[in-house]
Amino acid sequence: MKKNDYFLHFIIISSAELGQRVDNFLLKNFKSVPKSRIYCLIRKGAVLVNKKIIKPKYKLQIGDELRIPHIRNYNNKNSIFYYNNINKVSTLIDAIIYEDDYLLAINKPAGTVVHGCSGINFGIIESMRFLRPDLHFLELVHRLDRDTSGVLLLAKKRSSLHSLHKQLRIKGVKKNYIALVRGKWKSNIKIVTVPLLKNNSAKGENIVHINNAGKQSETRFKVAEIFTFATLVNINPITGRTHQIRVHSNYAGHPIAFDDRYGDIKFNKKIKECGLNRLFLHAKSISFKHPYNGKILIIEAPIDDILNKCLMNLRNYYKDQ
Questions:
Q1: Into how many domains does the chain fold?
Q2: Which of 99, 132, 213, 282 has the smallest CB count inside 10 Å?
Q3: Are 67 and 187 found together in one domain?
Q4: Which pLDDT score, from 0 to 100, does residue 129 have?
Q5: Is residue 66, in this structure, part of any structural domain at all?
Q6: What confidence score (pLDDT) does residue 116 get?
Q7: Quick one: CA dihedral 302, 304, 307, 308, positive or negative?
Q8: Same domain, 56 and 177
Q9: pLDDT of 122
Q10: Pairing mode of beta strands 149-155, 103-108
Q11: Confidence (pLDDT) at 12
């Protein structure tokens, strides 16, 4: 039996384990984990054999690759939460789009917060630390809004974090987003530079307003595709204020599809016919100097099936001629 103590256990079955039922094998090798939890993991499909979901009675064969989520320290309170949400947490493994000794990049799913906060246990950074106990240092380099998808950088070394934060301060990090907005984008609107002021609503949520007392901000827009009632735009935020892209898009007269704070309800209802049910804002790519070798690194994140389906429907039925 060969183990790789990583964010998952990968176990290659040898002749010593031949013929054992998978549930009995797990109960024997992970005695500190409650029996109910072992069966729960198998039932939820978190335990795979040769990349396939199996049943508890499956009998192991020589050469089988058994994939098991990291299940040490089960009695830890935080660990219990993640085991109870193992399917959702484990999706982050497949969301990794780049990794080396210094950095890790995730194609963040929409609807997932980057860090846990009041009332929310499931955050990207906490989950990745849980999934990757081999990493002694792991920190967020920047943030994305909960409903925004796309490239999210994490630093695996303190020196990497310092390097990237310095690049962010001097605007050496280039970010490229795509968004679907209401109406046909006016060709004369290429840069929005209105100042933004952040306040808290009665519910404790961040609400950003255009206000001369706010912080200087700049966003650059470029039309990518035009449809009969919407436009796909490429966006480069020069500054990184809270909700900057969403507020600047709305200020330009083109709120982003399914923006629940700064958007247009009628537009959202219309675009829903194209299969959209989430904010159409995606961090498409990010480029910067690698903190170790200084070479320019470009990391790209593909859009998810929901955004892709929406665009395909727009191209098929609402393409502007």
A1: 2
A2: 213
A3: no
A4: 82
A5: yes
A6: 66
A7: positive
A8: no
A9: 65
A10: antiparallel
A11: 80
Name the active-site residue from 23, 64, 145, 259.
Answer: 145
Angle at which helix 124-131 crosses helix 77-84, to 10 degrees, equals 100
**Catalytic site residue 259?**
no
Residue 31 counted as domain residue:
yes
pLDDT at 14: 77
Q: Residue 316: which H helix or E strand, with range?
A: helix 305-317
Final residue belonging to a domain, choices 71, 86, 102 = 71
Residue 58 lies in a domain: yes
First CA to last CA distance, the chain: 62
- Residue 230 is part of which domain span? 173-317
Q: 180 has which bridge partners? A: 232
pLDDT at site 4: 38
Range list of H helices, 53-212: 77-84, 86-94, 124-131, 158-169
Q: Is 45 left (phi over 0), alpha (psi -120 to 50) or beta?
A: left
| Side-chain-side CA neighbours of residue 178 (13 Å) | 16
CATH label of the domain that carries residue 6: 3.10.290.10
Last residue within a domain, chosen from 18, 39, 71: 71
CA pseudo-torsion sign 92, 95, 98, 103: negative
pLDDT beneath 70, residues of the chain = 1-9, 32, 70-89, 116-122, 201-204, 321
